[in-house]
Design brief:
There is one protein chain. This protein is of the alpha+beta class. Among the domains are: about 20-100, lambda repressor-like DNA-binding domains (434 Repressor (Amino-terminal Domain)), CATH 1.10.260.40; about 200-275. Helix content is about 40%, strand content about 15%. The strands form 2 sheets. It has a 4-stranded antiparallel beta sheet with strand order 4-1-6-7, with no helix packed on it. A 4-stranded antiparallel beta sheet has the order 3-2-5-8, with no helix packed on it. A hairpin with a 2-residue loop joins strand 6 (about 250-255) and strand 7.
């Protein structure tokens, strides 16, 4: 075999090489063991439970919910054990392929402009009204004249039943007023607080200023993913523990099942808070 063929064979086999050593969360787990740090200590620092820390070390990032939570925990874990964040994120993007995702192209359907039937309906309605008016006036003009009673004829006395008839009319006139009074006096049902399902926990967020907020419960269900506006109060219910991200922790106060829950930024000089809220 010639030297040129040997070089060609080496170039073809080069891409097949597997990564050497641990990657991503495995790299963090190796550093933790070398420094004799327990999983429980890491869980306390990351505000996570032990199963999620072990899932992070096994590169099972879906367990942590949205990618923003996984990246946040990877960054804090790397700082805790002194591993270069860039190396960890390089491994993360290779495993999740987030860097290779194509841009999303939104196609808007073409809207066909159709003639509105409104003008035609209005014209037909006007014609029908004109025909009805003409027909009514024609019938009225053909009606016989009302006979005029001479003044010297004695007027017929109303029977005694007329008084009762007028009385019944008065009673009928009073009935709607009484009915309206009864309707006004009916008590209106008061809205109540919806009861919680078994095993659920209630969160109440009160925003004193704008704060980007992301909240997912233990089942991975996204409860809130939006900008919290100043003066707004939001009530959520889900299965604890909750994965929470506040972009500006100083602008939000939290109550868990009616109890105040402290919220502080993760580091001095930062306004961002990433935390896990457990059921009290």
């Amino acid at each position: 075999m010639s030297e040129e063929q040997d070089n060609t064979t080496e170039q073809e086999e080069a891409p097949r090489s597997e990564p050497e050593g641990p990657v991503g969360g495995e790299r963090l787990a190796q550093a933790r063991r070398e420094q004799q740090i327990s999983v429980l200590e890491v869980a306390k620092e990351l505000h996570l439970d032990e199963p999620k820390v072990r899932a992070l070390e096994r590169n099972e990032f879906d367990v942590l919910g949205a990618p923003v939570f996984a990246k946040g925990h990877l960054r804090k874990y790397a700082q805790l054990v002194g591993v270069d964040e860039d190396d960890v994120f390089t491994d993360y993007y290779k495993m999740t392929h987030l860097a290779d995702l194509p841009p999303v192209v939104v196609s808007r359907p073409k809207v066909r402009r159709e003639l509105s039937p409104g003008p035609w309906i209005a014209a037909i309605a006007i014609i029908l009204v004109a025909i009805a008016a003409y027909w009514w006036f024609a019938i009225a003009s053909r009606a016989p004249m009302t006979e005029i009673v001479p003044a010297d004829e004695p007027a017929l006395e109303e029977p005694s039943g007329g008084a009762s008839g007028s009385a019944s009319i008065d009673v009928a006139a009073e009935e709607p007023a009484e009915a309206s009074e009864l309707t006004a006096q009916e008590p209106q049902p008061q809205p109540g607080v919806q009861p919680l399902a078994d095993g659920q926990t209630r969160l109440q967020l009160t925003f004193s200023g704008d704060c980007w907020t992301e909240i997912s419960d233990a089942s991975g269900r996204r409860l809130f993913f939006n900008m919290g506006r100043a003066g707004r109060t939001v009530e959520l219910a889900g299965e604890a523990p909750f994965d929470v991200l506040f972009g500006d922790a100083g602008n939000v106060s939290v109550r868990v099942d009616g109890n105040d829950y402290p919220v502080r930024p993760n580091s001095p000089g930062s306004r961002t808070a990433r935390l896990t809220i457990f059921r009290p």
